[in-house]
Design goal:
Shape: globular
Strand order of the largest sheet: 1-10-9-6-2-3-5
Oligomer: single chain
Order of helices and strands: EHEHEEHEHEEHEHEHEH
Distance between the termini: 14 Å
CATH architecture: 3-Layer(aba) Sandwich
Number of helices: 8
Length: 263
Amino acid sequence: MRVVIQENYEKMCKWAADYIAAKINAHSEDRPFVLGLPTGSSPIGVYRELVKKNQAGELSFANVVTFNMDEYLGLPHEHDQSYWYFMHDNLFDHLTDMKPENINILNGMTDDPEAECAAYEAKIASYGGIDLFMGGIGVDGHLAFNEPFTSLSSRTGLRALTTDTRIVNSRFFGNDPEKVPAYALSVGIGTVTDSKEVLVLINGHNKARALAATVQGGVSQQWTCSALQLHNAAIIACDEAACGELTVDAYKYFLDIEKEERL
């Protein structure tokens, strides 16, 4: 596992965007580059950087297929807190050459969540899997909507959201946890770790325990993020503020091994 520590959130986002752009640009045009994407506050800066590169002609999305991590159950596309809306508002609507047919987001208004999730997994498989899955984690270490104690081999499915997650997300729903949907559709931990590469963003003091659990704790369903320790090509991009719970030795090791700047 690589852990890339950057001074602040802005530098973390630039590093991550540069890494993603380099992977897309180096990809063969024989087939699409398949990119997994998250929502939430962590990736907003990355999306901003990717849009800049695209609008400057430095990065094309014409041969990119995207799959989003999750979507609230029961929110229509036009709801300003749906993840369909978030992705279009923060990324897709600003790209010059993103093809709408290449955008894949779980349908939160489905009448058959089980069939929707099975079809999503099948569509990912039809592209040969995901080349790079970018993600973020919650303060309790949840990856996508895979709350603590979700199976580390889980696939895309219906997830019940914990009270803590609904309270944290209530800031987007008028600070009323009851307005936050109780369920979501989400890729599984197994879906993410099946990807050829995984790049997870962790920033802020409130994510310090989660970062420590991700990189130096035991692999456990309690911290679903810890499954990344078993991935052969997992990268954590974090800022200094998130490093407060790392041991001094671990912190120094990650800085030392990454001292030669590389993508």
